[in-house]
Design a protein that fits this description.
By secondary structure, this protein is of the alpha/beta class. 35% of the residues lie in helices and 20% in strands. Strand 5 (105-109) and strand 6 form a beta hairpin. Helix 1 packs parallel to helix 2 (61-72).
Length: 245
C-alpha cells in the first residue's frame, strides 16, 4: 500500500471564481497528483456542471485534461457531486476516469474511517434549499434540462450560481450554515463510534475540531476565498493546510 497521504479539497467553483484562484487550484491539483496516493474533491469542483444529451459544459478543458493526467498517472480521483455539480455522470466516469459520487459514503482514507459528504441538505435549517433540491434533482427536471443545447443550459446555470457573491468575507448566513453542519457532524460522530472522521464542505469556511482523542470533524474550506485543503496521513492527526503555491 502507498505511504503517500490522501489530499481532500472542496468548493473550487471553477468557472465562477477569479482567474488567479483557478490557476492556484490547478497548480495544487498538479502537485497533489505527485504528492498524494488519492485525491478527493468533495463537491462543487465546477461552478456548474451538467451532462446534456448534446455535450458537456464549455470552459473546463484545462481541469479536465489535468484530471485525466492525474488518473492516468496512477492516482485515483474521487469527485463528490455538490449542489453546483451533482449532475455529472458517464462523461466524468468514462472519459475522465473519475470516481463520481452522488451521495455520501463511508470510506477508509489513510487509516481514518471517514464519512464523506459535500454537506448541502445536512443539519438543521436550509428548508428552502431542501425543497428546491428535490425539484432540481428530480428525474423529469433532469430529463428536460438535458435536452437543452449546452450553451443555453450553461447560461441558465451561470445566472443562478451566485458564486461571485461569496468572493468577499463570510456572511452571517455562511456562518450559521457552518455552525449547523458542525453540530450535525459532531452528532454523527457521537452516534457512530466506528467513525473516526467526518469530512464536509459546502460552507466555504475551513474548520477542524477534535471531538475526542483520535476523532475529528473537518470542513476542508474552499478555493473561492481560502485555498485550503485537508491532508490525511496514516498515524498522524488530520492537517488542514492553506495552499501558498
Amino acid at each position: 500500500m502507498s505511504t503517500k497521504p490522501v489530499y481532500i479539497a472542496s468548493d473550487a467553483h471553477l468557472g465562477g471564481v477569479a482567474p488567479q484562484r483557478e490557476e492556484a487550484f490547478l497548480a495544487w491539483l498538479a502537485h497533489a497528483g505527485n504528492a498524494a496516493s488519492r485525491v478527493v474533491l468533495n463537491g462543487d469542483l465546477f461552478d456548474f456542471w451538467f451532462e446534456y444529451v448534446w455535450g458537456v459544459p464549455r470552459g473546463y478543458d484545462g481541469v479536465l485534461c489535468l484530471l485525466r493526467e492525474v488518473v492516468d498517472g496512477g492516482v485515483p480521483v474521487t469527485l463528490m457531486g455538490g449542489n453546483h455539480d451533482w449532475w455529472g455522470g458517464r462523461y466524468l466516469r468514462e472519459e475522465i476516469g473519475l470516481e463520481f459520487l452522488q451521495s455520501p459514503v463511508v470510506r477508509d482514507y489513510a487509516g481514518f474511517r471517514t464519512f464523506l459528504a459535500h454537506g448541502d441538505g445536512l443539519g438543521k435549517g436550509d428548508l428552502g434549499y431542501r425543497a428546491l433540491r428535490l425539484l432540481l434533482r428530480g428525474r423529469a427536471t433532469r430529463l428536460a434540462f438535458s435536452l437543452l443545447p449546452p450553451a443555453v443550459g450553461d447560461r441558465i446555470g451561470g445566472r443562478v450560481s451566485q458564486t461571485e457573491d461569496r468572493w468577499g468575507v463570510s456572511s452571517e448566513a455562511d456562518k450559521d450554515r457552518s455552525a449547523a453542519l458542525e453540530a450535525w457532524a459532531l452528532g454523527k460522530l457521537r452516534a457512530e463510534p466506528e467513525l473516526t472522521l467526518v469530512v464536509l464542505g459546502h460552507t466555504h469556511i475551513p474548520r477542524i475540531v477534535e471531538v475526542e482523542p483520535g476523532r475529528w470533524y473537518v470542513n476542508a474550506g474552499d478555493w473561492v476565498r481560502n485555498q485550503t485543503y485537508l491532508v490525511l496521513e496514516a498515524g498522524a492527526a488530520p492537517s488542514l493546510r492553506r495552499w501558498e503555491g
